[in-house]
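Table S2 (text version). Query chain:
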Amino acid sequence: MKTLKAALAASAITFATLGPALAATDDVEARIMASRAVIKDFFGSLKGELVDALTNGGPVNAIGVCNTQAPAIADAHSKAKGWGIARTSLKLRNQANAPDEWETQVLNEFEARKAKGEDTSKMEFAEVIETGGKKEFRYMKAIPTDEKPCLACHGGNISEEVA
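Corresponding C-alpha cell output:
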C-alpha cells in the first residue's frame, strides 16, 4: 500500500507519498505525476470542507474540520485511491501528527526556500530513499497557507480563540 502524508508547515500544507519497494526500473516521473493527482483530489475535498466551515461558523469551526473531518476525508481518499493519507507539521496542534525525520528535513527546507522568496505554490520535493533495506519513493508538495481562507487560522494576526 502506498502512503500519502499531508504536512502543515508554518506556511504550507505539504504532502508526502511513500511508495512500496521500488524496482530499479520504476519510473520516478510517473510516481511524481500520480502523487500530484492524489494531492489535487485530496486537497480539493479538504479545502471545500474548510471553506464551508469558515463560511458557516468561522475559524473555530474550521479547526474542528481539521480535527475531526480531515482524518475522515483522508481515510476516504486512502481507501478510494489506494494511498494512506495523514497530516503533520512543524507547528503541531496534535503531537500524534509529528513529522518523521525525512518530513522534518523537507519541511525545514521548504521554510528556507520560502525565506529566500520562492513561491510556495511551486515547491515540491521527491526522492527515493532506502529504509530497512527497501527503497521507497517519497514526495512532498507545499500548499500555501498565506492567502485567504487559510490566513484565518495560519496568519500572523489570528484571534485568541483560534490561537
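Notes on Table S2: The beta strands are 2-8, 12-18, 83-89, 124-131, 134-144. The first helix runs from residue 28 to 55.
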